[in-house]
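Q: For a teaching session next week I want to show students how multiple molecules come together into a single three-dimensional assembly. I've collected the sequence lines for a complex. Could you give me the predicted structure tokens for the whole thing so I can convert them for display?
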Amino acid sequence: MNNIPLVHFLYLAAILFGIGMFGVLARKNAISVLMGIELMLNAVNINYLAFARYWNWSSLTGPVFVIFVITIAAAEAAVALAIIISIYRHLKTANVDEAHYLRG
Amino acid sequence: MENLIFYIIAGVTVASALLALTVRNLFHCALFLAMAMFGVSGVFIYLNSDFLASVQVLIYVGAVTVIIIFGISLTRNMMDDRAKAMNNQLLFSILTAIVLSVIIIMAIQESPFLGSEHPMSVMLGSVSGDVAQPVVQTVANADHPFHGGVSYLAGALLKPENGFAFAFEFVSILLLSALVGAIVIARKDPS
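A: Of course. Below is the structure for the complete assembly, covering every listed component.
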């Protein structure tokens, strides 16, 4: 079996989370923002599985939570794409900084 | 050798994730995202979760990326190469992301579960035991090793005594209602 230390998985997840955060903050297009959110959720999944594998071998709570996260990420992607298409139909744009009707 | 392959997978994942959020062409973004998802599923295999790795490929590479590509094609005039891909807070976003990652990494290094006084720290430094027979095992119930296989997961999800059965059914209702809601939102107005 591999002998990769746990912290390397955690470092990978932290870097992926940072990249996803960068995408959410910096990209103009709403679909790219969605991609950043998906990357952040994947980083969380890596953390769940790494701790489940290295810390508590007998418990299946980590993998079960990964399944829930994947399910909710899929539902979120579907709803987000529907909202983006609806916004595009109304405003003729998919840029997050041009859809500011709710700005105070 | 196995470790080298893991670090290659991790490097490919990070590089394609970075490219997926910096490349201007949105189709290339979606393809790099699929590549990053493949890398994450490889990392899942290194964590003994073969079923979750296949689920990752099926859902993220198969479904989410395809949905994203459909979304890109339906909002097509965003595809011109002259438009700026980033908004005007690019510098602060880079700063925030780097600071966030560095803070998380520093917190991992400082955290007490890596200290030698912790009873679990023996297996945290480097696990060299076989999966079937975990040598370094300080957690209770050692005769039931961690296994991401599908039968263990099915038992954990569906047996009522494990406590996840209600949540499992509830999340399936959530998925169904989210899909119906997506159809309702994206539908053209009949009026």
